[in-house]
Amino acid sequence: MPHTPSSSPPSRILTGTSGLNEVLRGGLTPERLYLVEGTPGTGKTTLALKFLMEGRGAGDRGLYITLSETETELQAVAHSHGWTLDGIELFEMVAEEAFGSDHEQSLLHPSEVELGETVRGIIDLVERTDPARVVLDSLSELRLLAQNPLRYRRQILALKHFFARRKCTVLMLDDRTSEPGDLQLHSIAHGVISLEQLVSDFGSERRRLRIVKMRGVQYYGGYHDFSIELGGICVYPRLVAADHKRDYSSEPVTTGLAELDALLGEGLFPGTNTLLAGPAGVGKTTTAVRCTIAALKRGQKAAYFLFDERLATLMIRSKALGMDLQPFIDDGLLEIRQIDPAELSPGQFAGAVRTAVEQDDVGVVVIDSLNAYLHAMPSDSFLVLQMHELLSYLAQQGVVSMMILGQHGITGDLRSDIDISYLADTVMMLRFFETAGQVRKSISVIKTRTSDHERTIREFRIDSRGIVIGEPIRNFSGILSGTPVYSRAAGDLLSLDTPADDSAT
User: What was the pLDDT predicted at 102?
Assistant: First the structure.
């Protein structure tokens, strides 16, 4: 008898793959035939096995029919992820003894028998085992047997109607060995999931998937990054900021420095992002850490994504400046994650930010820096689009976000790899200038969308006592251009023995 569920079939069934159900907005429509296509190594087998394991957990009988891999290979894949395939039927359409001379043309080996006989063998197997979920791996073997597109299409259609009568949900795997542009299977399948693997000149390979079609349901289109981890495939759905909103307080929060609050107008506002731009060594990271510590002291959680600097160096330097981060890490308020842009895809990074915000409930996010993050992106245009969605998402979550952008050069005309200042709600400019044979630093707020900010330039200094910000500089002009002009006695500059603000320690 055909498989009959104990109750009416659910509107969706889960795939077992993290993130894919979200991309599909709930999962797959049951009792339909789906195509999973991708070149070898993209993760088709891993996805298919997880699909059957998810069904096993839901009480569905699973069947894996392999025309290309052996049962031993499938068990090895499962073992590498720490899985057991107990309760799932694994069937090879050719047995090892079939290669002997006594069994020529008698068993179902794809290269030796007719397509019709292979299809009949599949049908007999399904009728005998009565599964609810079926995986057929792979269609390239059937295509080789068909010899012409018409015969191949007719046999696939026959299988589709047979599975529909049996009320089976079927994944057919295809390794894209057909001619480019062959859409025979696309027109037959109820849905098509395409897996891709991209190799860059440096770093690990990048994997992404796309829902080519899915009849009768809405899904998130476009490409979604994914990775193969211990335990299966992790899909990182493309971030759509409009789908993530929550209520939050819009009251400004302090940076921990009264002078910096004055520069900003009222401080930092939840739901806004701040860009700290300047040359190397001017104090961008230290300023961001100072603002982060102020949030941590308020009891907020923070996530610091570190691309450039080594974590150990950041910890040592911050402690030497009176800003020890270790107690906050020990209390679970601060998470600092060292990011290798050569190993992390943009989708993985966006997924890490979402996890920090939605699961860990962080209120402050720091990205240090955008220069290294740029190298994780395929092109500048994609960086801008990605950052737009990410910043919009953080804004709608009420997060205070800070981005650090390093500029080329030390003085004079400074340039950046990419200009995203128009995306930022607040832009802070940090610069070097010199007077009386000494190198000094300045800080100013170029724009803010949330308050009437101070339009002055202030000197600031970083030493073992922390950060101290001086009064507005009025005796110099041209500091931001990199060619400052001294006008008269610099009585508004910091003296060398000015103590740091107590709040910075």
Answer: 46
Q: Is the preceding omega at residue 369 within 30 degrees of 0, hence cis?
A: yes
Q: With a cut of 50, say whether residue 17 has pLDDT above it.
A: yes
Q: Which residues pair with 173 in a beta bridge?
A: 36, 137
108 pLDDT band, cuts 50/70/90, is very low
Q: Does domain 20-238 have CATH number 3.40.50.300?
A: yes
3-state secondary structure of 176: coil
Which has more pLDDT, 377 or 254?
254
Rounded to 5 degrees, what are φ and ψ at 435?
A: -155, 140
Q: Do 20-238 and 249-497 agree at the fold level?
A: yes
Tokens read off for 338 = 């060292």
Estimate to the nearest angstrom the gap between the alpha carbon of 137 and the chain centroid. Answer: 29
Helices 71-80 & 44-57 angle (0-180, nearest 10):
80
Catalogue the E-assigned strands of 127-181: 133-137, 169-174
Domain boundaries, the chain: 20-238, 249-497
Q: Which pLDDT value is given to residue 103? A: 39
Q: How far is CA 56 from the centre of its chain?
A: 29
CA-nearest of 176, 90, 171 to 135 is 171
- DSSP one-letter string for 249-292: ----B--S-HHHHHHHSS-B-TT-EEEEEEETTSSHHHHHHHHH
Q: How confident is the model at residue 310 (pLDDT cuts 50, 70, 90)?
A: very high
pLDDT at 99: 40
> 230-268 pLDDT, tens per residue?
999 999 999 999 899 999 999 999 999 999 999 999 999
Please give the single-letter amino acid code of residue 261: D
Taking the C-alpha atoms of residue 295 and residue 253, their distance in angstroms, rounded to an integer, is 8
For 47, the token pair is 């996805």
Which long-range contacts link 102-110 to residues 24+ away (Cβ below 8 Å)? 110/67, 110/68, 110/141, 110/142, 110/144, 110/145
- Model confidence at 131: pLDDT above 60: yes
Q: CATH assignment of 249-497, given 3.30.1330.30, 3.40.80.10, 3.40.50.1390, 3.40.50.300?
A: 3.40.50.300
What is the total residue count of the chain? 505
Among 204, 180, 207, CA closest to 193: 207
